[in-house]
Write a structure and sequence with these properties.
Blueprint: H1 2-46, E1 64-69, E2 77-80, E3 86-89, E4 93-96, H2 102-114, E5 123-129, E6 133-137, E7 143-145, H3 153-159, E8 171-175, E9 183-186, E10 198-201
Parallel strand pairs: 6-10
Antiparallel strand pairs: 1-2, 1-5, 3-4, 6-7, 8-9, 8-10
């Protein structure tokens, strides 16, 4: 009789422990689903131009880069990406840069240098100055402006003297560099600008 009572108590305690352990897992799943839903909603509202969703930066004509080949001072320096998307470097000549991320560009240089020039070359690269952005339409001073890291559309409009009284302040049209079409994006304080972008502020209809 005592043995049966002990077995029953152990069974009850085991059931309670399993229920308690399972609860946080369920709550965690709900929280994760909510976070994913919020991120998807944020992306939808900004057309993929929200800061956390901005694409990895790719080099383009007009960018100035600093390249350091460790242990090889004569091969290091500051260089521009030219109009054909190439960077002219000592020893290896022209290297393709346009359309590549910094990581891809570094890998390209290391591969070129290791091909009969250096043993196990180590290269670092960083962008010193980005190519400019362009803004036109219903702003006071449309034109070309230097890009700074973290630039938003609202920053760009401020540089261009602000909106005109005819400006549509609800949406903005952005054409990314190396793309054919502009994209209409809701105009919020977090919409990012990338180097080489063309921003158009449209006229509102009364």
């Amino acid at each position: 009789m005592l043995r049966l009572l002990v077995i029953a108590v152990i069974s009850v305690l085991f059931s309670v422990a399993c229920t308690t352990t399972g609860a946080p897992s369920s709550a965690g799943s709900v929280a994760a689903a909510g976070a994913n839903g919020t991120q998807a909603q944020s992306q939808d509202q900004t057309g993929g131009f929200e800061p956390a969703l901005a694409p990895s930066y790719r080099l383009g004509a007009g960018d100035q880069v600093r390249i350091i080949v460790f242990g090889e001072e004569d091969l290091s320096g500051e260089f521009f990406v030219d109009g054909s998307g190439m960077v002219s470097l000592p020893l290896i000549g022209e290297a393709p840069a346009a359309g590549k991320t910094l990581a891809e560009f570094r890998a390209e240089l290391e591969a070129r240098l290791s091909d009969g020039y250096l043993n196990d070359p180590r290269v670092s690269a960083e962008v010193l100055n980005y190519r400019p952005f362009y803004i036109l339409g219903e702003v006071e001073e449309s034109g070309e402006y230097p890009y700074t890291d973290g630039l938003t559309v609202m920053n760009a409009v401020a540089r261009a003297g602000g909106f005109t009284y005819r400006a549509n302040t609800r949406v903005v049209f952005i054409k990314r560099a190396n793309t054919e079409a502009e994209v209409e994006v809701p105009l919020t304080a977090i919409v990012r600008v990338m180097p080489g972008d063309t921003i158009r502020i449209a006229e509102r209809f009364f």
